[in-house]
Amino acid sequence: MSQIVKEVAVTIKTKMDNLPAVSTECCIYRVPEKLRKANAEAYTPQVISIGPFHRGKKELQLMEEIKLRYLTGFLCRGKADLPACTRMISESEYHIRQCYHEKLTQSSCELVEIILVDAVFLVELFIRNRNWNHDPKHRDQNDEVFSKQWMSNAVFHDVLLLENQVPFFVLENLYNLTALSTTVTFFKLSYEYFKDILHGHELASTRVQMKHLVDYVRALQLPSFPRGVTSKNGKKFELTRSAKELQEAGVKFKCGEGTSSLLDVDFRDGTLVMRHVVVHEWTEAYFRNMIAYEQCHHDNKCISSYAILMDSLINTPEDINILISCGIVENQLGSLDNVAHLFNNMYKETMRESSEFLYTNQCQSLNTYSRTQWNRWKAAWYRWRVILHRDYFSNPWSGISVVVAVFLLVLTLFQTACSFLDIYAGDAWRLFRRRK
């Protein structure tokens, strides 16, 4: 028995000694399975592998040739040749490996090739996007990404995925080898690629240390000024009612103006102010991957909190219609049921701690406001108005019918009252004459 104990102890000790050190540089993760099972497609590349996680998948091989053509274009505009670019990646190999959460099995040569080819593709993609949008005379009609809308859309989707990332510093270092870097920063170039789809605000400072492109697009939605968003004061995790229920209780909805953060939500004087959000084919993948990144990496669950707030406001297509009518939501997805389903399922398996929820104060204020006696009366009156409009005044003819019916009812009551008064007056007159 003692021999078994000794052997097991030695085995466990060996495994413990061989554990890889947890790097503070780690920032690129596999999506946790409990999140992936909700919608695997939102985390899976459609056409292109970026980085080592999805390298070698058969369905992504078409893009490998396109990557090499982009590499050729990059070298033509660069200030360094291929050996110099390769040397730059090779010298950063250890740092690059530390950025990935799992231990990479690729050899040094394999990893350097993967990172170089994929990172150059992203840099060249952003440069060509700028040329395509700002300089039509220099558009390459044979470009295999931008000349095909389906390909451009699929690549955009794949660039947003947490598992499809390379370290941001690699992208910046490679971009600095191009002539364009003297006039446009890589932050600006990245923003131009994402801005029209995500409607984020441009980062005010280029000194912010971004981890990768998912970290960058998340930063586009955060306030441009630093602020604490969590509070470990033991507040109860509290959600609010749906948009329809809040509207019935007298709450007004308003779309915020200006270029402030998507996450800025304010409730004051009975009005809930939220920023404009566009819901389109990229929205789910965009939010899900940022949420997965927050769950793996960030203490401040800003995007997760926003998804939970939207889920509490949206239960039915009626709630979506309310948010659309006031300009908060812009629906480019089609069916209202699809929009409701998107927000109702996006936050699954995420945090439920009050210290991490950004909107506890706003939800408490909304609930307190909607529970007051005056607002309860307004809610009841609102429901009656809705019923009357739906059942009796939905079109002019039904409205006329109701008015005629009410008029006839009043006439009937008046006639009944007159008949009663005639009978009562006659009886009183006869009684008077008898006494006389």
Structure report:
The protein has 436 residues and is mainly α. The protein has three domains: 20-221, no CATH class; 243-386, no CATH class; 396-436. It contains 18 helices and five strands. The chain has helices at 2-17, 33-36, 62-77, 82-91, 93-98, 108-134, 149-159, 168-175, 186-198, 213-221, 243-248, 283-297, 302-313, 317-325, 336-345, 360-371, 373-391, 396-435; strands at 252-255, 266-268, 271-274, 277-279, 329-331. It has a three-stranded mixed beta sheet, with helices on one face. Strands 4-5 form a two-stranded parallel sheet. Helix 3 (62-77) crosses helix 6 (108-134) and helix 12 crosses helix 13. The longest helix has 40 residues, at 396-435. The radius of gyration is 32 Å and the shape is elongated. The N and C termini lie far apart (127 Å). The model is unreliable at 225-234 (pLDDT under 50). Keywords: Membrane, Transmembrane, Transmembrane helix.
Give a quick precis of the structure:
Keywords: Membrane, Transmembrane, Transmembrane helix. By secondary structure, this protein is mostly helical.
Question: Helix amount, in percent?
Answer: 55-70%
Q: Specify Rg, calculated over alpha carbons.
A: 32 Å
* Mean of pLDDT: 82
Strand content: under 5%
Classify the oligomer. Answer: single chain
- Form type: elongated
Number of strands: 5
Residue ranges: pLDDT <50 for 5 or more in a row?
225-234
Q: How many DSSP helices?
A: 18
The H-and-E topology, N to C, reads as HHHHHHHHHHHEEEEHHHEHHHH
Distance between the termini: 127 Å
Q: Record the strand order, biggest sheet.
A: 1-3-2
Largest sheet: 3 strands, mixed
